Amino acid sequence: MTNHDRAAEIGGALQALRRTGVDKPVRDEAFLPFAQGGSSRQLLVVRTQHDPLSFVPQVRRAVQDIDAAQPISNPQTMDQLLSGLVAQRRFNVTLVGVFAALALTLALIGVYGVTSYLVAQRTREIGIRMALGADAARVSRSVVRDGMGVAGIGVLSGVLIALFTTQLASGLLYGVSPRDPFILAAVVVTLLAVSALANYLSARRAARIDPLSALRQD
Predict the structure, then answer these.
(1) Which of 85, 109, 139 is the last residue of a domain?
(2) Residue 95 sits in which domain range?
(3) Residue 7 class from Cβ within 10 Å (0-12 exposed, 13-18 middle, 19+ buried)?
(4) pLDDT, tens digit (0-9, with 9 covering 90-100), for 97-133
């Protein structure tokens, strides 16, 4: 209450309102009659059954019938108002999402590149194993197992680093803990799935190695 020396009759109580933003804490507020120090800028809220903006002319005429000099400016729907409140946060999250998608793509390319290089280095070894009777399925499993071992170490290291750097992302989140176990589990599963795909592609390449050609290499 702005005027502490005046008494005001309590007309009712409202539920908590987040007037300063959906991600801001609720603060104590009181609504005063215009005659007791109300703001010169008033808000009129109208609930409709159909398109709210289609009722703007009717509302404008109703207000002007009471006071012809009373202007009505910037009519908005609640959806538009909420969109404006979360526009900056939505932009930040979208930007982070784009970079996350690029990082995931680079991770897929990187894992595939590393495993392909390792397969190239083991070409002679794989050729010897296949010449001694190892079938393509066994060679593929070996490549995937070795690659997933390295990927598992990388994912575990990334999760540990993320647990210590979650404070950097907390400003972009609302209603979600940066250490939410379900989100971390989803990230781990996604990264392991991407690693498995990259290792599978390399394993297919290893399974197609011709033993004779591999043994002829220096």
Answers:
(1) 85
(2) 87-216
(3) exposed
(4) 898 889 888 887 887 787 777 777 777 777 777 777 7
